Amino acid sequence: MSITPKGIFVPLITPFNDDETIDFQSYKKVIDFQVESGVHGLLVGGTTGEYHVMSLDERKSLIKAGCEYAAGRVPIMAGVGYSTAEETIELANYAAECGAKWGLVLPPYYHKTSEEGIREFFKEVAAKSNVGIVIYNYPGATSVTISPETIYELSQEENIVSVKESADFGHLCEVVALTKDVENFTVFTGEEHFILPTFSVGGQGAFGILVNLLPKELVEMYELAVEKSDINAARDLNRKLSGIYGLMEAEGNPYPGPVKAGMDLIGMKGGKVRKPLTQPTDEIKMKLKEELIKLGYKVKLMDKEVTSGV
C-alpha cells in the first residue's frame, strides 16, 4: 500500500533560459532552497511548473531531474495528468522509475464525461500505476468538478491516497467530512487563502504557489496549526502573509508569473514564464516588493537592493 502524503508541498516553478529551454541549474537551486527551508514534499511538473506548455520529453526530463536533485531528502510527487488513462499511466510509471512516490492526476477534460466515467478513469489509472495516485480537483482549469461523493468512493481504492482540492472551500469541507474515517487518505488544499482554514477543519496538507517564495513561513504555519495546535500564533502568521496571497492571482487565474517575479526579487531565480503566458506587470512587481519588505526581506528591483531595515 502506498504511503500517504501530508504537510506542506511546493508546486515547483520551472525556471527557463532566455530561449525558453529549461534552466536545470537554477531548477536545482530552487529545489535546494525548498528542501533547506523544510518543505515536506515537492511537486514536480505541475500546473505551477508550466507542464501544459511542455512536450512529453520535457515533462519527463523535469520529473527525472527533480527526483535526482531531491536525492531522497524529501518525497516527490509528479504531475502526470493527461486526458486519457493510457497516457497518464505511461507518465505515472515513468515517474515511478525516476523515484517519485505519487502522481497528481487530473480528471478527463474537454469532452466532459459522466461521474461514472470519472470514477472508471481514476480506478484504471490507480490499478495500473506504480505510484500512489493523488486526485486533482481543479474545476477552474478543467471545467470538471469531481463531486465529494465520487472522491469518497475513489478514496476506497487501495492506490488512491489523497486529493488536492482547488475548488471552493465548501467542497473541501465536504470531502474532509466524508473521508475523515478513511485510512491512508489525506486531503490537501491548493489555495493559499484556504491553508489555515483547511488545517482547522481536519485537512492534512497544502500546496500553494506561494510556497515557492515563502517556504519557511508556510511550513511554520503548518507546524503551529497542526503539530503545536497553537491556532492563535498560526492566525497571526496568516495575517502577516495575507497581503501577498492575493498577488498570486492578481492578474487572472493562478499562474506562476507573480511568484517567479517575487523569487527574482529575493535573489532566487524565478525567471520568465513560457509563451503563450505573459509576463507579470511592473505594478505587480512593485506590490510584491512592498509586501516582501513588510515581511523583512531584502529585495532587488532594477538592480538596486531595497531593505526594510530589519
Architecture overview:
There is one protein chain. By secondary structure, this protein is of the alpha/beta class. The protein has a single domain (7-255), classed as Aldolase class I (TIM Barrel, Alpha-Beta Barrel). The chain has helices at 24-36, 56-70, 85-98, 115-128, 139-142, 148-155, 169-179, 195-200, 215-227, 231-245, 257-265, 282-294; strands at residues 7-11, 41-44, 76-79, 102-105, 132-137, 160-165, 186-189, 205-207, 299-301, 304-306. The strands form 2 sheets. Strands 1-2-3-4-5-6-7-8 form an 8-stranded parallel β-barrel, surrounded by 7 helices. A two-stranded antiparallel sheet has the order 9-10. Helix 9 packs antiparallel against helix 10 (231-245). Catalyzes the condensation of (S)-aspartate-beta-semialdehyde [(S)-ASA] and pyruvate to 4-hydroxy-tetrahydrodipicolinate (HTPA). GO terms for molecular function: 4-hydroxy-tetrahydrodipicolinate synthase activity. Keywords: Amino-acid biosynthesis, Cytoplasm, Diaminopimelate biosynthesis, Lyase, Lysine biosynthesis, Schiff base. It holds the Pfam family DHDPS.
Tell me about the largest β-sheet: 8 strands, parallel, barrel
Number of domains: 1
Task: Supply the CATH architecture.
Answer: Alpha-Beta Barrel
Tally of helical segments: 12
Anisotropy-based shape:
globular
The CATH first-level class comes to Alpha Beta
Instruction: Report the uncertain regions.
Output: none
Look at the helices and sheets and give the structural class.
Answer: alpha/beta
Cα Rg = 19 Å
Outline the secondary-structure elements:
Layout: E1 7-11, H1 24-36, E2 41-44, H2 56-70, E3 76-79, H3 85-98, E4 102-105, H4 115-128, E5 132-137, H5 139-142, H6 148-155, E6 160-165, H7 169-179, E7 186-189, H8 195-200, E8 205-207, H9 215-227, H10 231-245, H11 257-265, H12 282-294, E9 299-301, E10 304-306
Parallel strand pairs: 1-2, 1-8, 2-3, 3-4, 4-5, 5-6, 6-7, 7-8
Antiparallel strand pairs: 9-10
Helix pairs in contact: 1-2, 2-3, 3-4, 4-6, 6-7, 9-10, 11-12
Function: Catalyzes the condensation of (S)-aspartate-beta-semialdehyde [(S)-ASA] and pyruvate to 4-hydroxy-tetrahydrodipicolinate (HTPA).
Family: Belongs to the DapA family.
Organism: Priestia filamentosa
